[in-house]
Design a protein that fits this description.
With 180 residues, the protein is α+β, with helices and mostly antiparallel strands. It has one domain. Helices cover 33% and strands 33% of the residues. The protein is built from four helices and nine strands. Strands 1, 2, 3, 4, 5, 6, 7, 8 and 9 form a nine-stranded antiparallel β-sheet that branches. Strand 8 and strand 9 form a beta hairpin. It is globular and about 40 Å long. The protein starts with a helix and ends with a helix.
C-alpha cells in the first residue's frame, strides 16, 4: 500500500515538474513584436520615443504618442495593448534583413533566461533608455519582455553574453533612424 502511494506521489510530482515548469513564452510565428528601444524623460518636459522591431524586420517608430500602454513591472503586456501601441507607430524606411533578424531572434531565449544586475542610480534628469526583447504566449495572449539594458538615471544590464551584441545592434539602428 505504501509502495503504491509512493509511486503515485512520485509520478504526480514528475508530471507536475515536467509540465508545470515549462515556460509558455516563446518566439513563434504569432510573435508580432520582437525588440523595443524605449526612451522616456519627464525632467525637461515630457519626452517619450523609441521603436519596435517586428517579426518581418520592420522598424516601427514612435515619438510622444498621445495614447500609450506601458508594460507592468514584469514587462508584461497583452496582445491588445501591443497592437494599440503599434497603431501609434510609423514605419521607418529601414528594414532588417531576414538573416540578420534571425540571428538576433536566436538570442532572445538566452537573454530571457538570464539574470539582470541590480539597478544603480548614476545620474539625474537623464531619463531612461530601455532595450527590451519579447516572447509571446499564444495561450495567455501576453507578451513577456526581458530587459536587456537600461541606461540613464538608473542603469542595469542583462548578464547574458549576447546582451551586449543586441544592445550595440539596437543602438546602431537608433543612430541610423536619427540620421535619416
Amino acid at each position: 500500500m505504501k509502495a503504491n502511494l509512493f509511486k503515485l506521489v512520485f509520478i504526480s510530482l514528475t508530471i507536475l515538474i515536467l509540465t508545470g515548469c515549462k515556460k509558455s513564452f516563446t518566439v513563434s510565428e504569432e510573435t508580432e513584436v520582437l525588440f523595443q528601444y524605449d526612451y522616456i524623460n519627464y525632467a525637461w518636459g515630457y519626452q517619450h520615443n523609441g521603436f519596435f522591431i517586428d517579426n518581418k524586420g520592420n522598424i516601427l517608430v514612435y515619438n510622444n504618442p498621445e495614447e500609450w500602454n506601458f508594460a507592468d513591472d514584469d514587462l508584461r503586456q497583452s496582445k491588445k495593448q501591443i497592437t494599440e501601441n503599434l497603431a501609434s507607430c510609423v514605419q521607418s524606411e529601414i528594414r532588417i534583413p531576414e538573416e540578420e533578424l534571425k540571428k538576433y531572434i536566436n538570442y532572445i531565449k538566452n537573454i530571457a533566461s538570464s539574470k539582470v544586475t541590480a539597478v544603480k542610480s548614476v545620474a539625474a534628469d537623464a531619463g531612461a533608455s530601455k532595450y527590451i526583447c519579447y516572447q509571446y504566449s499564444e495561450i495567455t495572449e501576453y507578451y513577456k519582455g526581458s530587459l536587456i539594458k537600461m541606461e540613464g538615471d538608473f542603469t542595469c544590464e542583462n548578464l547574458n553574453f549576447f546582451s551586449k551584441k543586441v544592445v550595440l545592434w539596437m543602438k546602431d539602428i537608433n543612430n541610423n533612424l536619427i540620421v535619416k
